[in-house]
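Researcher: Let's run the pair from yesterday's discussion. Sequence first, then tokens, for each.
Model: Starting with the first of the pair.
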Amino acid sequence: MKRDKDKLLYAFHTEPQVKILELLWREGPLTLEDITNALKVDSKKAYEELENLVKRHIVGKRVEAHSYEREVYYPKMSKERRIELCEIALKYSSMPPGLMEIEEEERMRREIRKFARKTHL
């Protein structure tokens, strides 16, 4: 059953994107170099796929400072949540799942602001 649900990712992502997402879910934040080495892919192609995922709000990127600064990519939601949004999108909406997540977060912020106004916080 779980394997069938994993296939939903291919309805919204290319195979290279799914491989990148699977790696990030498994390993956590990684640099472009980490990703290209792990998947044995061209860095330019991996960068293009990552930037597409960033633009769609599925993957985030940040600069981490250890002994040196490095830019890392990380999943903005769990695999389970991503699959859930893909299921919803396929059944009920033409809106991409990444935007559905942003819309849901905004709805929650509005509800919190509304509650805060009512309670004078």
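Model: Moving on to the second of the pair.
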Amino acid sequence: MQRSTVFALVLYVLSLAATTSVCAAWSPSDGAKGQAVFRIRGALVPHDLAGTVGPGWLVGGAAGVGISRWVMLTANFDHVALRDRNARSVEPWTLQLEMGAPFQRHVMPRFEVGAGLYRRTEKPWIFPTSSNLRDETLFGFNYGLGLSAPIATRVMADLNLRYHQTLDRDVGGTRSHSLKLSYVAFGLTYGLR
């Protein structure tokens, strides 16, 4: 009896979330234009997803503003801790454009593209210890797909699939190896306006 009651309650809450008017949370007549958002996210980084480093975990966030009806500009920071044989952590600091129909539908798909600096911490190949970790900063880019759905007034649940890749030289021009990183992230977006 309790299972069916819990199941019915969950279905009721999900149906309310699906039918909640986005108008109550956002201004659909303007789309994303002028909307300020704050986003938090987390992810587990699987091993060898699309040939990338892993396994590990990710925590991060973003702050952004709508620059047109269909486009948002966000500043993103993530910390990715890895258990790869070489890479220990990666910290992407990126600017990103998110294109889609934000704040205008119940489930909103979007395409994301960005670029920025990637701080990578590695163990050396010979005699790896925690005291001789090497840091380098690389320029890189990312792209991905996302879905957002309203769950409360000014709050959206996010699902993102993102791919990152860096160039094979650090910002000083020293030759390095490129980094490839893919993950599926879950998070929340808060409307600040």
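Researcher: Give me one sentence on the second I can quote.
Model: The longest strand covers residues 134-152.
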